[in-house]
Every structure is written in C-alpha cells, then in structure tokens.
Write a structure and sequence with these properties.
mainly alpha, Serine Threonine Protein Phosphatase 5, Tetratricopeptide repeat, two-stranded antiparallel sheet, 9 helices, 2 strands, about 5% strand, rod-shaped
C-alpha cells in the first residue's frame, strides 16, 4: 500500500514538472516566433504558479519585457523589470538578448527600485526603533529604578540615549550638591566662629557663595528628578500616548495580618 502511494506521488510530481516544462517551452516557442500576444497570455498564469525556479521566472519575465515593449506597452515592460529585481536585485540584462533601448529603460527602473527599497528599509528600521513595547511588570520595575537614579528607568525601558544623559546629569549634580552642602556648612561654622572683624566679611562672602551654589544644585537636582519621572511615565514607557497605563499593586503580608498598598497613576490623554 505504501509503495503504491509513493508511486502515485512520484507520478504526480513528474507530471507537474513536465507540465511546467511544456508550458515554459510553449512560451519560448511563441517568443521565438514573435507571437508576443500569445507570450503574454501564456506567461500570465505561468508566473503565478508555484514551484518554479527563480532562473526560469527571470527568463520568462525577460520575454515579457520584450513582448510588452514590442507591443508598445512600455509601462508593463518596466513592471516586468521590477518583478525581476524583486527576485534578484543584482540582475543585469544580457545585451545579446535585450536591445540597448530596453537596457537603458532597465537602468532607470533599477535606480528607482533600489532607491525605494532603501527608503522602505530605513522606514522599517525607524518604526522598529520607535515601537518599543514594555510589559506592565517591566514598567513598574523601571519606575522603581528611576525613583533612586533618574535615567535608570529610561535605560531599563529601552531608551538608552535619554537614560544615560539623565543618569550622567543627575549623578554629576548629586555629587556636586552633596559637596556644596558640606562645604556651605563648613563655611557657615567658620563664619560664625570668626572673631577677627577684618576677616568676617570675607568669611561671609565665602559662605554666601557656597550657600547659593548649594541651593541652585538642590533645585536643579529636584528638577532633573521630576523631569525624569514625568518623562518615564508619559513619553518613555513604550505605550501608546492615547492609552493610560495602569500602575498599581504593591503588597506586603504575613500569616496574621496583610498590609496592602495600591496606587494608580491615571493619564487623561
């Protein structure tokens, strides 16, 4: 029984291959006889059928190029060239089979095709980069990270350039802020303990400058921190700006008591 099935399958495959060879031969015969309308009719169904090698398809499309051009349909000739380029973008027509005029047309078609292909590739890359999808669990993790280090959440969410910029800016600001907090306290103590009247103004000026820088750095750090949180929640969360992410669910519990803390951040966009 199995042998019979195998034999039947082999006969079907052989018949199919033979039918394709005959169809291709028929197209070629009509092409060599300059029956271009018949070439187009026969090749219409042939190019849509499956199981045909790329080399055979290219040869059939080459015949269609000549057939369409000979019948005065240059647009269809260009379309046939495009179909060839879809199969092989490095294709070059054989001057012995195609006239110089058709080769010139092909060069224009190829130039436009490669240009559009490059634009499509660039667009796909841009869309892939912009369409960052973040799961709710990952977003919660990013928010927690961002509370401690501004920019860390953006890095975790797939926005490294923005994240590293915020991280470097906030870290440098934090280090400077801590330094001037201690510096201002040190200079304040020196100013309050100074008993030499001639040194009191200079002590005060030194303390005042350090005090002002401390306040500026504190304010700027708070600004960077708030900006980082807002940016993560609204613009760097990998979700559609028209949808409101649901951020909730922090719970602590034991066998006797359960303490649950839920919070929600709605976005009215």
């Amino acid at each position: 029984m199995k042998k019979n099935i195998i034999i039947i399958l082999l006969l079907i495959i052989t018949a199919k291959i033979s039918a394709q060879e005959v169809t291709f031969n028929q197209i070629k015969e009509q092409y060599e006889a300059f029956e271009y309308e018949k070439v187009i009719q026969l090749s219409n169904s042939f190019v849509r059928s499956g199981g045909i090698s790329d080399s055979v398809k290219i040869e059939v499309f080459q015949m269609r190029v000549v057939a369409f051009y000979s019948l005065g349909d240059e647009t269809s000739s260009q379309n046939s060239f495009r179909e060839i380029l879809k199969i092989n973008k490095n294709y070059q027509p054989d001057p012995s089979k195609i006239s110089p005029r058709l080769i010139a047309i092909f060069q224009n078609v190829k130039e436009d095709y490669l240009k559009s292909l490059k634009q499509e590739t660039a667009l796909k890359d841009t869309l892939q980069q912009s369409q960052i999808v973040i799961s709710p669990l990952q977003l919660k993790s990013s928010i927690i990270k961002n509370l401690f280090v501004p920019g860390w959440g953006q890095i975790s969410s797939g926005y490294p350039e923005k994240g590293y910029l915020l991280s470097v800016a906030s870290s440098a600001n934090l280090v400077s802020m801590i330094y001037f907090i201690f510096d201002a306290k040190k200079k304040q103590d020196a100013y309050l303990k100074e008993i030499n009247k001639s040194l009191i103004p200079s002590r005060y000026d030194s303390y005042n400058k350090s005090y002002k820088l401390r306040n500026i750095l504190i304010t700027s750090y708070v600004f960077i921190w708030l900006y980082s949180q807002i940016d993560l929640l609204l613009f760097s969360n990998g979700t559609d700006s028209n949808s409101a992410p649901d951020i909730s669910g922090v719970a602590f519990g034991n066998s006797e008591r359960d303490i649950q803390f839920n919070f929600r951040i709605p976005f009215p966009f």
